[in-house]
Design brief:
Largest sheet: 6 strands, antiparallel
CATH class: Alpha Beta
Number of helices: 5
Order of helices and strands: HHEEEEHHEEH
Number of domains: 1
CATH topology: Aspartate Aminotransferase, domain 1
Distance between the termini: 36 Å
Strand order of the largest sheet: 1-2-3-4-6-5
CATH architecture: Alpha-Beta Complex
Length: 136
């Protein structure tokens, strides 16, 4: 069961709090923040999820980051042209099934990843890095 550490609406996460709750996965969080440096970042509170970070270009989300205990979840929607580019690229071959089976919403195709270690981070990190070039 996922433990969501930031459920108090009156206590927005700080870097120190994130580092404490993420543990070893804080490194991957920092990496994501560096990859998405040119995008805006806003913490939003949801009754169902607690605090989550929206990384966006002032219009649409690049991804959402949901803090968990010793891990975090990344949720994103990729557009049709991005989906095609990822499916055409061998670098993302290991997640072609995930991309092909993703549900289509108005915002795009939904992808979700739980980041617990370096292996979990590798492909989502590459996806987000590539998305930043598509959306810049």
């Amino acid at each position: 069961m996922e433990k969501r550490p930031f459920l108090d609406k009156n206590s927005k996460p700080t870097e120190q709090m994130l580092q404490s709750k993420f543990g070893e996965t804080y490194t991957y969080y920092e990496n994501l923040m560096n990859i998405s440096d040119s995008f805006s970042k806003d913490w939003n509170f949801s009754k169902s999820s607690g605090w989550m970070l929206k990384v966006h270009d002032k219009k649409k989300a690049l991804f959402y980051l949901i803090p968990l205990e010793n891990e975090f979840k990344i949720s994103m929607a990729i557009r049709e042209n991005e989906r095609k580019a990822f499916l055409d690229h061998d670098e993302f071959k290991t997640i072609h099934d995930v991309i092909n089976s993703s549900k289509k919403y108005r915002e795009g195709y939904a992808l979700r990843f739980n980041i617990k270690n370096e292996a979990d981070f590798k492909i989502p990190g590459l996806l987000i890095k590539r998305l930043t070039t598509f959306r810049s």
